[in-house]
Fold each of these.
Amino acid sequence: MEILQNDILTVEVSSNGAELQSIRKGDVEYLWQGDPAYWGRRSPVLFPIVGSVWEKRYRVDGREYVLGQHGFARDRGFELVSASDTEVRYRLVSDEETLKVYPFGFCLEIAYRLRGNELDVVWEVTNPADTDLYFQIGAHPAFNYPDYDPQKSGRGSLSFDKTEGLECIRIKEKGCVDVSVKWPLEMTDGRVKLEKDTFDAIDTIMLQDSQIREVNMFKEDGTPWLSLTFDAPVVGIWSPPGKVAPFICIEPWYGRCDSAGYEGEYRDKDWMNRLAPGERFESVYTIRIA
């Protein structure tokens, strides 16, 4: 476990999955601490897929591979590359084990950089091979609802950098989506009201096509709690349906689950990223604590 600290925040990160473990401001914990009764993870990095592939199978040059939801990086040990009081960097490279389920060479580096009341999460993917690399990558941080009370319905609210015209797609079956139907995101006074049953019917609020670049989270009384800013083209917002969970996930994605019934090539999936030999992908999203 590595600890980043300044005079505002204390952040903890584990080498297992290079996963964020804690964001504290004083005695207040902002990151969900994991409980299998609701969801046992905290902030896994999703790689080399985001979400599910249809029937847990995908094809590369006609050959079929099996890969579980969100890929394997979240369950792998990462090498610690560097660490200081305010920044830590980890690395995962392809090996014999990854090539069995994902036939691409890669180097994935994940860094966390603390700046005042903000935490930058940096992803870098490099292609060390002599053939093209195809991948998806995404975030899955879970944030505690402020002043959580399971007996009360209200959970606060969300706002975005766009206040009207937002459209969502939804999970159809087996963790995959129906892209033929778009649902308007209902907002009141520019915000999405969060209730204890908000996700019971919809599972995930999924916005694609770069509709938003910022998500702001507010307490029930309207006080700011935290925000995320990003450049990712797809964003998922999720809390476990039917569990009255104490947290909500705000997830910037460079990728998305399959469309229901998809049986095409992996490289032709929606929101796929491609790197030619020697090329590098880099992205940063920022968590800001109010």
Amino acid sequence: MNSPPPNKILDCNGKTLDLSRPQVMGVLNVTPDSFSDGGAFLDPGKAVEQAQRMVGEGAAIIDIGGESTRPGAQPVPVAEELRRVLPVIEALQSTIPVPVSIDTRKPEVMRAAVAAGAGLINDVYALQAQGAVATAADLGVPVCLMHMQGLPETMQDNPGYTDVVDEVAGFLSARAAACIAAGIPSGRILIDPGFGFGKTVEHNLQLLRHLDRLVSQGYPVLVGLSRKSLIGKVLDLPVDNRLYPGIALAVLAAWQGAAVIRCHDVRETVEAVRMCQAVRTVGDGTSLAPDP
């Protein structure tokens, strides 16, 4: 078996995430109001079953969120967010072999989630909340920094940029530098352009068309395009009928070098991304065998 390139294996609180090839992150929202699956997995037992199902379909990491960040969403108190996510993280720690990430912007939730077994912090606010960078540095797990213009409550009111690709790239580079200055090693940082977070359809399309410019910064790039309103606005499709265009967007991202594809429909996305990778790496000796 070929050894992955240096710095491509992330230690996620004792479990590993292999980024030597694109991986799929399964979305698990334990919220009543997320835009796609809100309310479906509020029961911890159902959430655990869904996580196990996604791992069986090929997910390399499960992303658990207890606070919706859809456009217009209101903040959730710390205690309520913890009540939603901790039982699921604790149950999954011993029942799935892949890491769990915590989708939160609150330092208190980060700390409790990592103590319960979470191995990556996925923050839509890029660790800008007071104490977040210091908390993440202290916890010692990888972090994903996402770009968002504004806050979920207002981000889609009137987003505007002079050059969306340059501005998003500049923001993420600056946030990564701030994390490194705070003691987070560069090898534990991922970046996410934040499709749909304070961006119009045009902004989202421009970002995807030029995703390779973000990849060239050297940090693994995570993208979340699954079932997004971008698809609905371009194709006039409801949220439960966006699978095939979502797969197309995932492949476009993987082709340009995205390291992690965050999605709801795991099996279909895994198969599409693996075929994309087979074409991208043909002739270079990379193993195309599925993960064990």
Amino acid sequence: MAEIPLALYLHFPWCVRKCPYCDFNSHPLRGDIPEDAYVDALLADLDYELSDRPEHRPLVSIFMGGGTPSLFSARAIGRVLEGVERRLRWVEDIEITLEANPGTAEAGHFPGYRSAGVNRLSMGFQSLNDVHLKRLGRIHDRDEAIRAFERARRAGFDNINIDLMFGLPEQTPAEAAADLDQAISLAPEHLSYYQLTLEPNTEFGLHPPPLPADEPLWAMHEQGHAQLADAGFAQYEVSAFARAGRRSRHNGNYWTFGDYLGVGAGAHGKRSWRESGGLAIERRARHKHPRTYLSRAGGAEALQECHPVAVADRRFEFLMNALRLTGGFDLAEYRARTGLDWDDDSAAVREARHRQWLHTDGARVRPTPLGLNYLNPLLGLFLDQDDA
């Protein structure tokens, strides 16, 4: 049976300013970042993870997210990666991603990040329209975003993702198309193109801005997918588009129920192992507030949550992400990563096929194009655990 791949997620919780749509664990800066203390905490946290359950598998990817990891100096990022490499084996072609804000000061760190071993950047443009950037609370403008991308290229990055949203407050389909055209013209290797959603406990969630109606939203979705296809980007997930050979390995591991260590304030992790009773799966989450995390990292007290994934929950947890993939998933992979057998004659599967949302052929399961458009109702069919 194939080994379940292992990745590492490192969370950097600080940002310059909290965006009104953001529900991630990010905290506006109040003074200087305690760089050295936080790097020490990350490595101590990783030591605890590995002492608690030693790991023989090599890392297939590392992802540094936030917050804004690019607020940290290249020296600090280098210390993190050197410390990780001393503790864990890596595959030879490991993917190491850093989320970067397009602010000009942070773009100056790009050569240092590349020298430190980062080989992929994920740049949060969100828009290339100054009016919409201001409405979104972003600290950069269009020109700064383009300059940051160009500086990343000059620094040697040949694998860059651009995050771009549509359905912005008062945005028109023409404006969304212009945003995407400008992003495509930069020739990134990967584009994450997704609709703005209003999340609870955010400023936009509490005070909703005027968003486009359903008809223009659908137009933005359809024209955006056409623009990306025409430019040579293949869709492989609901909101992920890549040139050949440039799919996100780290996100792909999440979407196929792979394992990942999670260290840093608010970081989540998932690990699986074989025991006498079969496959055991556990999820963990760290304390969210940086101050609390800094005071507790290195021991069990840094954990805010730790629980096994019950057998009854595994099918839905797997499908919740795997059905976002245009190519679906292999049934052997499903068995290996959930410990379950796939029931192709279950009521949920039969109903999904009847609605033409799902295709199964005995070896692979994939959502149809219609199923991708009705993803939430499709997943809803599998919420009935009596059908597991």
Amino acid sequence: MIFVIGELLVDIFPDYKRIGGAPFNFAYHLKNFGMPVRFLSRIGQDAYGEEILSMLERNQFNASDIQKDPHHPSGQVHVSFDGAGNPEFDIMSDAAFDHIEFEPYHSMTTPLDMVYFGTLIQRERDGFSRVQAFLDSLDSNVPCFYDVNLRQGTRQPKVINHSLKKADIVKLNEEELEYISREIIQAGEETEAAAFSMMARYNIAVLSLTRGHEGSELFLSSHDHFSVSATNVEPIVDTVGAGDAYAAVLALGYLRGWPPEKILSNATMFSASICRIEGAVPENIAFYQHMRNMIEDGSDG
């Protein structure tokens, strides 16, 4: 079982709306790959919350893992695009997902294959302490996937430092690596040296670095380093959620013991396919058929 915790919100684009949030996107992809997934989040008792819950039930998520908050609204983020087509996010503060309760999950009996968490749900002091207490409660053999995903109001060194200490697998982009190297590790090294320094400092087994149109890289604790070029995408509709799609395939490959080259090629292919649709997840699950076929027949896709 892959246990995913984090924000669940409504992405409000200039011309349309989608249910989103990096943890939800990650969980949605893995569920549609055919993997066992539970997703813990919190929504408001409002119209957006009803819409979110209805969609989750249609997609056979466990509704009991979605808490209903009578005092805080469902999360919302307004998405706009800069001149280069890159998304910019204006995220509502003090939303329901900032108040997820973890106590009922501190003594889970379900065997866990992985726990996924990010930074945004730790932006408030209470959220940070709750997430860290939950991670402390896990069996030490459960691998933790930390998707750094620094958004508005989340560049908090204490949060990032403690999260990295809990992580076995880390995904981040070039800007995030540079920030952590400079502000937290205080080394300011070049890319490869910075990645391996972070892994050594925090005992990280796998570090995934995404570099946009320059491709991506995978660093292993064995000091092996792999890279792949970006897939040419035409036409690009938007890039929202491409990193979450990449993270889902990284988790899948890790759990299934894929070689690094296979992880990189399939993560790159799948994240590129997300750039061809509106929003972060497809509305038609037939979108996943190629990945499911590849998983089932064991081919390299």
